[in-house]
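We now fix the convention by which a protein and its fold are recorded. These numbers are not coordinates but entries in a learned vocabulary of local backbone shapes. A record is reproduced here so that you can trace the correspondence yourselves:
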Amino acid sequence: MISAPEVVELVLAEAARLGGADETIVLVTERSTTALRWAGNSMTTNGDSFGRDTTVVSIRRSGDEAFVGSVQSSEVDPTAITALVAASQRAAASAPAARDAAPPLAATTVPPDWDGPIPTTGADVFGSVATSLARGFSGTDTLYGFARHELDTTFVATSNGLRRRYTQPTGTVEINAKRDGASAWAGVSSPDFVDVPTDSMLADLSTRLDWARRPIELPAGRYETLMPPSTVADIMIYLTWSMDGRGAQEGRTALSAPGGTRVGERLTDLGLNLYSDPGASGLECAPFVTATSSSERSSVFDNGMDVGRVDWIRDGAVNALAYPRAAAAEFDVPVTVAADNLLMTGGDASLADMVAATERGLLLTTLWYIREVDPTVLLLTGLTRDGVYLIEDGEVTGEVNNFRFNESPLDLLRRASQAGVSEVTLPREWGDWATRAAMPSLRIPDFHMSSVSQAR
């Protein structure tokens, strides 16, 4: 298997030889993955894998119009490059004009590590996690779950001379504990598996299963509810996925307003900031665009463009929407592209403090199967899962039944009455796509549990 930089140069040379494109962009991602699984208090499977994805983006230009063909392959045989490039150029030849067309980006200097070794991972990264789990397997709870660590090294290059490289570490641990028909979930993200708090995760799960010894049936309705960071992450991630500028400008989203957008509208007096930042400590991610296809939030024409911090909500007000270069030019606004993480500031109270200050309410742990119901108000529906608990006079007194909920992230921010300490967290629903997050707990005075769910 030839190296990724060699693949880049072969693709660009083949694109020039075939001559079916005015510009070529190539993205090569080398992926090293290791995984560990357990079930019924026993390790079941583990293994390492290596792979490569190569995407060729061919661009034909005619006056102010551009036509794009993007084709991806996981083939590692260099003899397949000719067919891949040809397929991309054929796709560009038959494509309609691209709405996100933008001028080519300028050439860059070659990164000093361009030809350097590509880092890999292996099962030894799970050493401390496996040791803690082994102790947990001898306990009273039955444990299920998995851990994953991945190193993705991405190379971006263009026929215009742009060259970028970045290695993205991604790691997660998810544990599900069961006892007497009750279930609880905990998850964390970690880029390097240093100091993963497996023991405290197991202790927290055991506490929740203790709470579940007293089952309580509650009807649907509106309840004061504490949302821990993981649940807040799931809701806020969906909000930012919906914050595209074009959709808002064209009146198609919940961020639309008569004659424009809701930028500047205040959502909360809690002074919260919701932002993405490639340099956020512990949640670092690629500081440039890596787009294998275009969407309303990113564009293949922007591949390799610098990405910085964006405050989507600043001091409680909508501050920015996502605009790739073409949309920014069309609507005469700054270029704004999201980094692959999401953070929200919070307050000073811990979740335990917030529980102690609750006279009567619900404590969520995770959300599940979140789907959009009405994009015009960003109304979401979903299920609670693996533990909803009743709080009475500052203490958790039992586990209640699961619910289906109907809520909008915008409305939750409008009604939130308290934000706790912001901490790194793993979203349960979107953790496969959005691993890097830091969120506070939120107190919602009237969270809408729309119906009782029979799910266990």
In short: The two ends are 47 Å apart (CA to CA). Residues 4-18 form the longest helix (15 residues).
